[in-house]
Specification:
Elements lengths: L1 E4 L12 E3 L2 H8 L5 E3 L2 H32 L4 E5 L13 H10 L9 E3 L8 E10 L2 E11 L1
Parallel strand pairs: 4-7
Antiparallel strand pairs: 1-2, 1-3, 5-6, 6-7
Length: 148
């Protein structure tokens, strides 16, 4: 069954994508939850017209995200946390702490768009993360965990 997504769905697609999914998935989950509509011929025509109108807006967003990516690349970000005498962190550093460090540096990024490369950050040191800025624009950043 072909559907038109009304919003981004993880591991499936982005808003306004026309995709094929199994009938049960569409009828039992996506459509009742309001994530998608059935892609009939009239819906596809309306969708095409809307996409033409949104193309200009999307180009602005893409340019803004690209400029943001250039600014954030190469920045040094420090996450301060409580550390034991052996250099181990009490708990671990997560995306919330990294989002706060980015915000303190002047970059507003939602924590759901940040993915830390290492499984667990439990020691003082330098680590890497991936920040999703737009649909297909991702930037790799480096952050340092320091003692508070």
């Amino acid at each position: 069954m072909e559907i038109i997504l009304k919003q981004d769905v993880a591991n499936l697609g982005h808003k306004d994508d026309i995709i094929k999914v199994k009938d049960g998935y569409a009828n039992n989950y996506l459509i009742p939850q309001g994530f998608a509509t059935i892609a009939t011929t009239s819906a596809k025509k309306m969708h095409a017209e809307n996409m033409k109108q949104r193309a200009h807006k999307e180009e602005k967003f893409r340019a803004g995200a690209q400029a943001f990516a250039e600014r954030i690349t190469g920045g040094s970000f420090k996450v301060a946390t409580k550390v034991s005498s052996t250099g181990k962190i009490y708990g671990s550093v997560n995306t919330i702490m990294l989002a706060e460090a980015l915000q303190n540096a002047g970059f507003e990024v939602e924590r759901k768009n940040i993915k830390i490369k290492e499984e667990e950050v439990k020691e003082v040191g330098i680590y890497h993360a991936s920040v999703k800025l737009y649909k297909d624009i991702k930037v790799e950043i480096e952050f340092e965990v320091v003692a508070e």
